[in-house]
Amino acid sequence: xxxxxxxxxxxxxxxxxxxxxxxxxxxxxxxxxxxxxxxxxxxxxxxxxxxxxxxxxxxxxxxxxxxxxxxxxxxxxxxxxxxxxxxxxxxxxxxxxxxxxxxxxxxxxxxxxxxxxxxxxxxxxxxxxxxxxxxxxxxxxxxxxx
Length: 146
What we know:
Elements: E1 19-24, E2 31-32, E3 37-41, E4 47-51, E5 54-55, E6 64-69, E7 75-79, E8 85-89, E9 92-101, E10 106-108, E11 113-124, E12 142-145
Antiparallel strand pairs: 1-6, 2-5, 3-4, 3-11, 6-11, 7-10, 7-12, 8-9, 9-11
InterPro entries: DUF4402
Pfam family, one: DUF4402
Organism: Gillisia lutea
C-alpha cells in the first residue's frame, strides 16, 4: 500500500504587552458648595452642575488622562471604576461616582498607543466644609486586549 507524508513547521509571535500609564490626575477644580448638588466632569474637561453648586475660577478642571500602549492594530477593552468612592477632607466627605471615558469601553492601538481620558460625577453636600478634598487611594482603570 502506498503512503504519503507531509511536514509542517510551527511558529509563535509574541506581541507587545498592553500597558497603561497615568499622564494626569483628575481635578474638579474650585467649587462653591452653596446648598449642594453635583458636578459632572466630562472626559473633555468640561464641567456641568446640577443643584446649587457653583463653578469657581482658579485652577482649571481636568479629567484623568492615560496613555495605553501595546501591539499596533490591536483593540482593547477599558474597565472603569464602577462603585461610589469618597473624597475626604479630615472628617468631611464627598462621593465620586459614574466614571466615564472618551472611548466607549473599547479602544484601538492604531499607532501602538492611544490616549484616553476619564471623567466622573462629584456629589457636593449642602454647605460642604471648605478645604481640599482628596481620594485616600487611587482609582483603577484597567485595560485588556479584546
